[in-house]
Amino acid sequence: MIVAHMEYTYPVDKDAEMRALVPDVDAFSRQFEGNEHFQLSFADDRPGVLLGVEVWRDAATLNAHVAVAHDAPELAAWHALTTGMSISLFTATPLDVAELRAGAAA
Question: Which spans are transmembrane here (predicted)?
Answer without folding.
Answer: none
